[in-house]
Batch of 2 targets.
Target 1
Amino acid sequence: MSLSPRDLKQLFRRLLLIRRFEEEAFRLAVAGKFANYHGGMGQEAIPAGVCYGLKPTDNTMITHRGLGVLLTRGVPVGEIFAGLYAKASCPTRGRHPIFHMAAPDLGILAGTTMVGSVIPLATGAALAARIQGTSDVTISFFGDGSVNRGDFHEGINLGAVRKLPIVYFCENNFYAKSMPLEASTAGGSIISRAQGYGLPGEVVDGNDVVAVYEATQRAVARARAGEGPTLIECLTYRWTPHSTAGDREFARTDEELEAWKAKCPILRLRQQLIEAGHASAEELDAVDVEIRHEVAAGVEFAEAAPYAAPEVALENVYL
Amino acid sequence: MPARKRTSLALSNEQLLQLYEDMSMLRAFDEKISERCIRGEIPGLIHLGVGEEAVAVGVSAALQPQDKMVSTHRAHSHFLARGADPKAFMAELYGKATGCCGGKAGSMHLADLDIGFLAANGVVGGGLPLAVGAALGQRILGSDWVTLCFFGDGANNNGAFHESLNLAAVWDLPVVFLCENNGYGISQSIHKQQRVANVADRAPSYGIPAEIIDGNDVLEVYETVRRAVDKARAGGGPTLIEAKTYRTTGHYVGDSESYRSEEEVAEWQTKDPIVKFEKVLRRKKLLSKALKSEIEERITALVEEATDFAVHSPALDPAAALTHVYCEGGV
Amino acid sequence: MARMSYAEALNEAHCIAMRDDSRVFTLGEDIGEYGGIYRVTKGLQAEFGEQRVLDTPISEIAITGAAVGAALVGSRPILEIGFVDFVGTCWDQVFNQAAKFSYMTDGRASVPLVIRMACGAGLGYGVHHSQSLEAWFTHVPGLKVVMPATPADAKGLMLAAIDDPNPVVFLEHKFLYEVKDEVPDGRYTVPLGKARVAREGGDVTIVSWSGAVPWALKAAEQAAAEGIECEVLDLRSLVPLDEDAIVASVEKTGRLIVCHEACTTGGFGAEVVARVVARAFDFLDSEPLRVAAPDIPVPNSLALEAVYLGTRERLLEAVRGIVS
């Protein structure tokens, strides 16, 4: 379970890929290239850390801020950009936003934009794994905004009582759109809810990719061993507004944002790699150059991609 | 949990006897309803509260007249204990125009706003958000009522429970959540439905204080609810009370009860809340044989009168089925 | 008269109602300082405080039920659910609880509640944020269903909805929020159940509501250039339905097209056609038509969403077809 220098460099690459993608996607959305983007800049350690040790057959279900999972589990950069541009050259053929993208071969079950609705769906995926006798684990991502919805309660209770192989993974960035966590959530914390389902819970520094990886691996091991679900709460912060569709951030302060930027997950790992002598600054900068090219090529691909033919709108309503 | 003094909330001897009489009255009504339901006189799904009378009576004794009550599908006891007119109640079960809801509600949708009984409910968990709303309305209107929300153990795995407790807690609303935990959601034991042993185990998740009590002990129910209601009225926010009890009859009239053993039912019958309280009263020398017969006679007369009223009320005009889909006029 | 947007007109209706009656309050997600997704509640919290403009957690079951419960005890809540697509999460509280109280108590209880929800496509919001589900609500006796098409109606219907002792589902089209028009000053109500003749004409009746009204007016204008005079009827509310106005118009024109944004099958257009056939069959010169969306979810890509919204273009063809 412990990470080798090679693993750490791999993680660094993934973190950086998400960051450069996020930056570019945010820039393009603000420039009006596509309708709306729910950026996850600042939260990169979570998708990178969670997905790193998963088997390809383990399932992940994402939220509206799930770009990092798509990238780390291997959806090509260009296809995701094409998804943002609502072009035909992506798994949804432009029919749906990227968070509805399904890539079953990569363990990506289609996500949902309904806050919290993913939790019962993911629980169902875990139930199927149990019934079919596979060793696959499901990771259900959700945000702090989900935890007061009935779907959270019913989904997690079912996972708990049946001891299903699932990890309930909360990305707590402290604001559900404009709603601060403490104004919406009684009981003082999200993790305190775990006891109400008889589940173990763990709070993790969501800006520490190694901590995220390790906590996930512990929970996944428990799930695979038939010991049931774990609730993980990752503390993090989004650097950009809830979405690019005119969201205002009056509830958040500049000081708060700056304090979280100082905890940048990428800078942290970079320093760690350099200080431990696992990599030189030049080596890591070279990775950055390479990634910037990859992202730019992805944008180019999406820009050049065609829109879907109108008939596509009428297809696949039923199988 | 603070230490409890049995008679700390000081009920008079008359009040103690009233609790006994009320519980016995609820039992007698449900027995009559069961009989008439089996005879085919009362239609529909009928959920009896036999064995759970101490909860209904203890709770009602702890409320003030202005307080609101939200109930469940097992509502007869709550409704009568809260002070509903027995004749209008029986007529409602019989589906007569003289019923408290004109025959449209029946057993599962009983309501009487004049006594603060807002709604029974046909949907498990359906009443929890309504109760939060009644408490919110209290705040908006600047009134001083507390809302008592009954729900069953079956509702605590429903999303409505989670959302309602969180909302009541985060807004500090004057509502008391009273779980009648009778161990089964229809045929499913609570242990098959959740991993935590008690409903009250969930309260800390919402920062809500909780107490687990013997739901077959009417005084314990009364005292616990009274403290929670007083606290809520004073601005102290919500409380969750889990009353452990048991329905000694089936989920509904006609239930096969294949999911539980006769031994289990028999064991709970030994904890019958009425018999239990009768012993308390006897020890206090409050209930003589003569007085007991007197009470029984009174109850029999009340039940007969209400049943006769229901039976002999005229049949409904079918045209009534088309009225009051919408409320006319202003409010 | 002042020129203002549909969203501003709704905001003004809230202000008037809340100033006039301390029982009126509003609750919903992000409606406080944030002012709501569509700015309908902008500034309300500053004026009326946090106790009457309540930001809620994302807990649609609890907040819908709480609005019903608060109405039941005598207050007058206005609930915002940001997208009608989300109503599935709290559907029980809408159709089983709110809608049933008057009936199940035989008129002894009432639920004076307004549930505001945004509907409609056209902004690339995808399958969970673009639907028009009005037909669902019309199928539930006990709910009233209101769908304004203009700023003036938005304000007047909102005030009427707040006054109404019943649960009113108030569907606002998100494409209309920024549309500006003249709005009368002060308090006035537009009665529920009274359709508006948005344009007079003698050849074809186009019945529409909400976001489809501008389409109907545009098609009518284009048709007029070709010598076809369309009468455009804006229903304003589907429940209660102004059947008399529909029948009167069809008796005049002899031709009926119902145009709505929602999917065709099971859409409210079917109800309108059925009522006209039952009451004015002999006046019809040709079979009534529904012009509505294909039976598909709403796709994200604007190129594909245009297929869903193809009603706009097909309406003029339908007008030409029905008179030929």
Note: The mean pLDDT of chain B is 94.
Target 2
Amino acid sequence: MDIRRRNNVSVIGPEDGPVVVLAHGFGCDQNLWRLVAPALAVDYRVVLFDYVGAGRSDLTAWSAERYSSLDGYAEDVLDVCRELDLRDAVFVGHSVSAMAGVMAVAKEPGRFGRLVLLTPSPCYIDDGGYRGGFSREDIDELLESLDANYLGWSGAMAPLIMGNPDRPELGEELTDAFCRTDPDIARVFARTTFLSDSRDDLAKVSVPTLVVECAQDVIAPREVGAYVHAAIPGSRLVTLDATGHCPQLSAPEATVEAITAFLRDGER
Amino acid sequence: MSPERAHPPPATTPDALEQQAAAVAPLLEDSPEDLYENAPCGYLSTLMNGTLAKVNGTLLSWLGYHREELVGRRRFADLLTIGGKLYHETHFAPLLQMQGEVHGIAMELKAKDGARLPVLVTSVVKTDAAGEPKLIRTTVTDARGRRAYEQELLRARRAAEEAHREAERSREHLHEVVAVLQRSLLPPSLPPVPGLETAAHYHTASPDHLGGDFYDLFSLGGGRWAFCLGDVCGKGPEAAAVTSLARYTLRAAAMNDADPEAVLQTLNSVLYERYAGDDPRYCTVVFGLLEAPGPDDAGFDITLAGGGHPPALLLRDDGTADFVHTPGGVLIGILPRPPLAVIHTRLEPGDTLVLYTDGLTEARTPTGRYGDERLLAHAADLAPSGAEPTVKALTDLLESFGAGLDDDTAILALGVPARAHENPTSSPC
């Protein structure tokens, strides 16, 4: 199988630079890194990819079975790492991808040297004393929101998203095509993301880890950031003065600075 | 001036335009302020961090808030349901940051009293002269009617998808049933016949339909064997029922009296009586007997009778091939007592007898039906050829027809292994 094609892998930056893998979360694709990837690519070899089902990945490789558990996403991460034969790479995972990274590190620790968890949440649903910020009903409501925008998805989008640009009349729609996903795939990803519970995996993280949270984040509130920081032995926590769940978009400079400071520290 | 004209002509001169504008101005009351506050859609502006900076009167009245409860205090996402917030954070906000605008996203706003208002949201980022994003302008349109309509569409789509899945499941189930029934109409494997090689192939034209072709080979005891191959008219369950009846009638009749003519007369009587009236069912069939003459003779004597079936093919050891016609040739099941006769032939070592149904010769090719002539020429090319390689070659031929082959096809080959050829130079002659 051609993993580079399947996961729409792109690699930028100096060939001899330390490798940084950027993994997008639920809702979009590698486009989410567009404001930070060029800055990181000055000194680092930056690997970008789309999970199968997202962006311009090969949708024919998607199966509900594999991508109904975070393990399927962790396997995508490892497939990409194996394909590029990465060792001691820095993995930067946004949102649910942070947890996919945690799982990937546990499976093949040799491939990863450091871990950056950007607005991570190991469990979105409140559970006893744990405050994830959401209830099961909230997640069902999100699925309804996905459905309500279901009609925004049309059959005509499919060839575009599947990477068949031989239909120029669809070019106009390209801007809106960012982050568009087949509704069935989005549903499965949403369920997998928001119903997952990876709290037990955090203590197993064996590499130096940076947790980056935003001061105002509805999806991963600060209590969750503090929880992740406390659960991963020796981890570092940085709180960005940013709003929203995507600091790589809302505060790209501060995000780059947090990542590179952590990496420079490791080089010393 | 024309008497039909009931209205004054539209103002076209600059003077006339000005006069008209002045006349309607008092009616419009369209100060920019009023246009904003009482627009037929909700307007709001937010700072880049999402904090509400300005909200128009229309939206305030929809939501039941006072301006001071929202402006500077709440963020746009706070007005959304929790599911909408999740959608906003994972889809809307990232898209807006990346593209500078997002159009027509369906969300639900939560009014102060908890009521939900389905809306369509469009946002545009306003930048300053240097291109720095300064604020987000958002219009909110009431989408209650549209949402109800969309929900109908969604429900219809889900129903259609479910019906489609159900149809797929039914189809899979049908394929299973058809495959099981089809297998039951054929011997699971051909029994070994000492001194004879046998091979068979069955091509199913469609997984949706039961085919009406059949073949069989079975022992009659005492070194005698019976074989048959036939084609029941029609397809589907009715044809399959006839196929099953035909195959077991042939077996039972052969046990009683193995003479091929008698066997076919019995089958004829059964079909003729069972399917009398307005639903006649008939078939074409070849039935034969195999006898190994004795320990010193490697060949087989064959007695053959046929009813309306294509001739058998004989591929000889010497590299020639011929059709073996059976006399009579009337369909079985049509007449009360059809004329039938048997013929006798022999399979010598190296000879192979091939029975087939007309799916093979009726297959469409770019130059018309495949036909008897081409089949015979192909057989001559193959000869001499054992049972197994002959069936393999004919199977390949069937595959080469592709979509041109639209009927079921059965093939049965019986071959006597060739003698080990002696080296001619060491021959005493």
Note: Confidence is low (pLDDT under 50) at residues 153-165, 167-176 of chain A.
